[in-house]
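Hey, sorry to bother you again with one of my protein questions. I've been puzzling over a protein and I'd love to understand its fold better. Take your time with it, there's no hurry, and the full record follows here:
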Amino acid sequence: MPKQSKQGRFERKIRKQKRSSAKTLEELLDLCRRSNDFHSFKQADDNPFEIYYFSSIVKSNVIHEQILPVLANKQLKTLVGVKEAIRVEETKIEHQLAKIEQALMRGEVLICLQQAPTEALLVPAEQAETRSINPPEVEFSVVGPKEAFVEPLSTNINLVRKRLPIPDLVITERIVGHLSKTKVAILHIDGITNNQVVQTVTQRIEDIGFDEIIDSSYIAQLISDDSNSIFTQLIDTERPDRVAAMLAEGKVAVIVDGSPHALTGPTSFVEFFSAFEDYFLPWPLASAFRLIRLCAVLFSILSTALYVAVMTYHYEMIPTQLLHKLVSSRSGIPFPPIFEALILEVVIELLREAGARLPNKIGQTIGIVGGIVIGTAAVEAGLTSNILLIIVALTALASFTTPIYQMGNAIRLIRFPFILAAQWLGFLGVAACFALILSHLLVLTSLGQPYLAPIYPLRVTDLKDSFFRLPFNKQKKRPVSVRAKKRKRFSSSHDGNHLKKRDIEE
């Protein structure tokens, strides 16, 4: 027992030391010396300068090629002289301890005078391990750009800036997270984006008190209007072209350092079912594909629930010939329709989760082989009917048509309340469940803007790019729901309608 008490006191002491903050530069350096990757050295005993840095996050060539040759000059006696001699951008002398600590942990080299330990010269030498820009994986498109965001914030901003090369593109950075010190960039176009939306996003990000921000999904959950809703209120995208297009509409984008995804808002429920590839196709094709996705989502939500309701309460609605097929397919099955449906839905979700968590090649094999083997075995064993197996398979297939992954997860989840409601009250239960979800969507907002716009409140002009997409020359104004400062996208003299195509003979 005494040994355990001594160990407990030691652990509490260590935790207290970790929580304590340094009051002076010497205390900060003493805290850093506890790490094996922290280095400090002098070139010579008569040299007044000392160098401090973390070797794991600093480029060694900057130290050997830019810093050490300068410090070898014995005529330099002040930090100002060293700053002028070092040819590295953004080198500066800092007096505030908090900024010195942030710079040191960010990958900058500290140069201090032993006679003046209250200030330091900061030399940027960050070593960032990055990967190359690859095609989008979640929002892949056959037509259009093949660039996706990566983890470094500077690279992601570059991908957006080269698509919007205008000085009105304003980027504001904030540091979020007491432990992670994550850089978060807020993007908007001055003169187009509503100032109230920008202030709302900025204030919510500044008010974040969470200690660790790893990914943009953290920000999405912390700044959403209703964090308890299963419906995401910000579009999470990996495409820089989509971010640029939404900024041009008057929306705000949030990019997090270390995350290959960006957040955009305010958004509406209908936007989650429009793929960005729709804008690269002729508008009749894009409108048809968008309607197919919406119908597929409705089928995915309601098909299994309607099967349970019909087989439990409303079998008289089934035509006689189809009723014989259903009765013969269910003959010998010991479970009621609700258990039969839940078993298949759970099996489909298990296969989907297993395929997503396993390596790529193994996951595809598990999804295909597992679905065929388990489905065939369940029908032959008399645990489920072959008709319901077809319905559930089509339901799972239809749920994959949702372009935004987060909305696809919500669609997967709300199928189960509909199935339970169908077992409870039949069609009336399905209608009641639909009414509850609709009432939730009616009160939901995205950065203060209605989530069901342009359906409610009705914005007729915004319907040009909702369930269907009209030609670009018909979309002369930005959406009303965004409340952009500048509504017109181009003047009527540039819509292209005044130009008539003529033959050569004419």
Observations:
- The chain is about 45% helix and 10% strand.
- The mean pLDDT is 83.
